[in-house]
Amino acid sequence: MLNRYPLWKYLLILLVLVVGVLYALPNLYPADPAVQISGASGSDTVTATDMKQARAALDDAGIGVQSSSLDNNTGLIRLRDGDKQLQARDVISDALGQDFVAALNLADSTPGWLRAIGAQPMKLGLDLRGGVHFLLQVDMDAALQQRLDVNASAMRETLRNERIRYRDNQVEDRSIRFTFASEEDLEQAEQLFRQQYDNFNFEQSQQGRAQTLTMSLTQQAVSDIQDYAVNQNLTTLRNRVNELGVSEPLVQRQGPSRIVVELPGIQDTAEAKRVVGATANLEFRLEAAGDTPAEEQESFRFRNDSSRSAALQKDVIITGDRVSSASTSFDQNGRPQVNINLDGAGGSKMTRISRDNIGRNMAVLYIQHKSRTRTVMEDGEQVEQRDTYTTRRIISLATIQSTLGNQFRITGLDSPTEARELSLLLRSGSLAAPIYFAQERTIGPSLGQQNIDRGIMSVLVGAALLLVFMVIRYKAFGLIANAALTINLTLLIAAMSLLGATLTLPGIAGIVLTLGMAVDANVLIYERIREELRGRASVQQAIHNGYDRAFTSILDANITTLLVAVILFSIGSGPVKGFAVTLSLGIITSVFTGVFVSRAITNLTIGGKPLKKLWI
């Protein structure tokens, strides 16, 4: 019989609709405005007493609190009124003091029974949810300097192992310079270095009796080091942001030396800087021995006790980028420690150095690159000038008790929280070069809500116009098309929620476009049915031919559009990708609802009935 589906096909379509409704439902529960409370540093934790103090301060200020919770030393206070969010943050900050950071947040309000089946609302992008946008500048000169310092350290070790004496060693102007007492020592050193370092240009010179060997980086080496620095920093920042649990962050390269970081849902710039601001590196060095020459050692203070200091050798054993993984545990005395795993090259060098220095102290040096902005006068105008500086502090100084391999531990930490922070820093990777905040921008929750309201309004207006047009144009079949259009929108939202896609303003534009394209399939089908009726076909035969013969055209048109969407996603930036995602999913749901769902509705309502006239 014409226009009848088998039972299994109806059941399959019904199952898809039920699943779509379930996974679209969480989007009806908007996130609650909230204030998140965390410690200003790794050693500061939030307690139940602090939460009571914060709630009491909010009550005194007349700010309604919906609920509060404490999880993993982080407090969350949900508010009744989103307009009071900024005021609540300031009240909590004043009440708890500088040892705590109060940051604006949006807390998920999805019912537990939906979360139990994995149903979550769509993630919102920075332009809809609000948050912070950072433009980070990678210090290319420092990247080159760090690489030269590492190479110079390795060269000095090579000369000592080969018993080749040198007078002086300097690193400057993208080059390494060694001064020797004799030409014979210079020739031996150059021969060794040429075998090990093919990224340098070598030049000999003579000043009096001193023989100087200058090794300058080639232009290709400079480009490779700078490119590696940006890519390594990009990976490190992604790891750190992901491990810190920021929802749907964006970390991507912009140009040759800049990185963009966007953190949706975070409204406090200071808090966001603390999340991504661990722009530090680690160095493992031996403590200077009593016979270490003064020019080969440096003195550093301890991070947690500035009154203490220790002299370390200039030579770096390894840096933090050689750490492949790190975890926290406790030693036999119940004190926190960090367990380290090194990569192959780092493990080999650590084994060699530790084997020859059992009984000596090894320090972990925490290097942090910072910047401060000051206003200066230039040509009678006030301009902002950024000054960069670096702090170096010892976080651990322990005795090498046995030969260390690619696994060892760092002890001497003050608290489990500090151990977790250090393990996170090591696990996520160290920066290959310092980075500085070149630009920062905050998108407030009110602007994000305004974008959401306008986006929803655009979807509603577009859908309403389509619904009215289809009813006027195609009568009863227009109602079927409208039902399919509503189901299409539901399935699109469910698919984006289920896949964890991020909705942005361009994504909303993609939804609006999808709605317009969704009715194209029905228009093709219904116009084909009209042609069949004009050709004297029976009602049921016209419906059957209309759906069957229009399907090829519908498929061809949507495949070409889908290919364009895939290309946009593969080569586009963030906003373009958001548009491409919604467009791609919308094409798939449009074909499903426009062809199969609408035909199922048609079959159930008029399929197989002896109709002599069709209102279309």
UniProtKB/TrEMBL annotation:
UniProt-annotated location(s): Cell membrane
One Gene Ontology MF term: protein-transporting ATPase activity
Residue span, Protein translocase subunit SecDF P1 domain: 230-287
Pfam families on file: Sec_GG, SecD-TM1, SecD_1st, SecD_SecF_C, SecDF_P1_head
Region annotation (Disordered) ranges: 326-346
Biased composition (Polar residues): 326-340
Broad class of the protein's primary localization: membrane
Stretches assigned to the SecDF P1 head subdomain domain: 301-433
Topology in the lipid bilayer: Multi-pass membrane protein
GO cellular component terms listed in the entry, alphabetical order: plasma membrane
Domain SecD export protein N-terminal TM positions: 2-104
Transmembrane segments: 455-472, 479-501, 507-529, 550-572, 578-602
Domain spans labelled Protein export membrane protein SecD/SecF C-terminal: 438-602
Top-level taxon of the source organism: Bacteria
Entry keyword set: Cell membrane, Membrane, Protein transport, Translocation, Transmembrane, Transmembrane helix, Transport
InterPro entries registered for this protein in UniProt: SecD, SecD-TM, SecD/SecF_arch_bac, SecD/SecF_CS, SecD_1st, SecD_SecF_C, SecD_SecF_C_bact, SecDF_P1_head
Record Gene3D superfamilies: 3.30.1360.200, 3.30.70.3400, Multidrug efflux transporter AcrB transmembrane domain
Alphabetical GO biological process terms: intracellular protein transmembrane transport; protein targeting; protein transport by the Sec complex
Role description: Part of the Sec protein translocase complex. Interacts with the SecYEG preprotein conducting channel. SecDF uses the proton motive force (PMF) to complete protein translocation after the ATP-dependent function of SecA.
The protein's assembly and partners: Forms a complex with SecF. Part of the essential Sec protein translocation apparatus which comprises SecA, SecYEG and auxiliary proteins SecDF-YajC and YidC.
Family that this chain belongs to: Belongs to the SecD/SecF family. SecD subfamily.
Name assigned to this protein: Protein translocase subunit SecD
Source species taxonomy: Bacteria, Pseudomonadati, Pseudomonadota, Gammaproteobacteria, Oceanospirillales
